[in-house]
Fold:
Amino acid sequence: MPIDFAHDLFLIRAPEVVLNKFYHYRPYSAADEAAVYNICLKTCDDGMDGTEVFPGYPDLIGDRIVGSTVSQSSEYCFVVEDDEGICGYACAALDTKVLQQKSALSWMPAMREKYPGTIKGEQSPADEVISSFHGEQHFVPESVHNLYPACIRIDFIPPRVVDHSVPKRLLACAMAALKTNGATGIHVEMNIGDKSMIDHYQRLGFTQLTVPDIKSEDVVYLGRLISLNKIL
Structure:
């Protein structure tokens, strides 16, 4: 696979218990949207089920976290299936700035129409997400974009993904597609309180970045290089 910095993704430790479960990896298709949204909801609370966090809004967190990516950058998105169906995904974009610019023109206006911003007073988590569609949009910091222009989100249903190599293989699929099209580095943006998810990405080889031009103290960026081209 065309990835310079991904040898660790192929170093898979033999399981202590023999697994008789098979996984199938393939590119994302539009028919997968509902399943991807459901996984996003089931994992959005720092890797745990967020259904009760967003009552009455089954699509809201999917619209916020992965909707723009799967609708405008589907060629860099992948899913993994078990015998029950889709159980995980990797949603990526080649250039975060381009994705965010496209999102500002088309995705965000659609979300503002879908979720009217008439909320006042104390806000629930759902209210806060809805408000984010109507507030000032933040863009990836230049210091992150310079070395890690691509972005990614990887989620999976833990009870169904018992093989620890699954997220590594999802990342390898996305990184290969990104590298083939010129990406030099990839990053993920996380809420600073999502400790389990931050640890998850660090186990996948991402390192926490020092971002001098960051505009929010609630956000943390982790990055991983894909090739040497940008730093040579």
Remarks:
- Residues 96-114 form the longest helix (19 residues).
- The chain has one domain: 23-225.
- The chain has seven helices and seven strands.
- The beta strands are 24-27, 77-82, 85-93, 150-156, 185-191, 207-208, 219-225.
